[in-house]
Amino acid sequence: MLTTTVANPPSNSPLERFLIPSAPPAPIPPSLAIACLQTVHLHKDAALEQLRFLRALVEWQSTIDYLKDPPKGYLSEGVDLVAGLEEIARYLEEDRYDTDFGWLWDVEALVARARDGHLVYKTLLWNLFTFVPGVQFVSVSKDGAELPEIYVYGKSPHIAEK
């Protein structure tokens, strides 16, 4: 089971803290969170500008050549981040996206393929909700030599008692 929580944004000023009092996270169904994200209107010009910024950031990455053409034995497949961003920009120009969610999903998936630990890109849209697994898993070896077995550990505090 997966739950989703939404919390108030961090307060930046005493006035904001007064006008927007803090509240505990509110659990909501993940399907509702995704449906909400999919309603955010697409602002194509702003999206294209954001991609131009992101491309400059990606081109500055010291690992970009390794990511595109990994050396023998590299654990991840190659990913051409610049070409991927150009493709997303082309899709935006061709009106293939209806909402912000679509193109941001593609950017998120592209950056996640890098898996180098140096490049992370999160937008405000992706920070509106936190998707929390309903349970945690642990793997434990009985004696330290046997292969570990997987167990459910504890219960998520975000799941309401029934």
Secondary-structure map:
Elements: E1 2-6, H1 14-19, E2 26-28, H2 30-37, H3 44-60, H4 64-68, H5 81-93, H6 100-112, E3 130-133, E4 136-140, E5 149-153
Antiparallel strand pairs: 1-2, 1-3, 4-5
Tell how many strands the DSSP assignment holds: 5
Task: State the major sheet.
Answer: 3 strands, antiparallel
Structural class: alpha+beta
Question: Kindly, what is the distance between the CA atoms of the first and last residues, rounded to a whole number of angstroms?
Answer: 14 Å
Strand order, largest beta sheet: 2-1-3
Instruction: Please bin the fraction of helical residues.
Output: 25-40%
Number of helical elements: 6
The succession of helices and strands, N to C, reads EHEHHHHHEEE
Task: Return Rg in Å.
Answer: 20 Å
* Estimated share of beta-strand residues: 5-15%
Shape descriptor: extended
Descriptive report:
The chain is an alpha+beta fold. The protein has a domain at 41-124. The protein is 38% helix and 14% strand. It contains six helices and five strands. The longest helix is centred in the first third of the chain and has 17 residues, at 44-60. The protein starts with a strand and ends in a 9-residue tail after the last strand.
Give a brief description.
This protein is α+β, with helices and mostly antiparallel strands and 162 residues long. The protein has helices spanning 14-19, 30-37, 44-60, 64-68, 81-93, 100-112, and strands spanning 2-6, 26-28, 130-133, 136-140, 149-153.
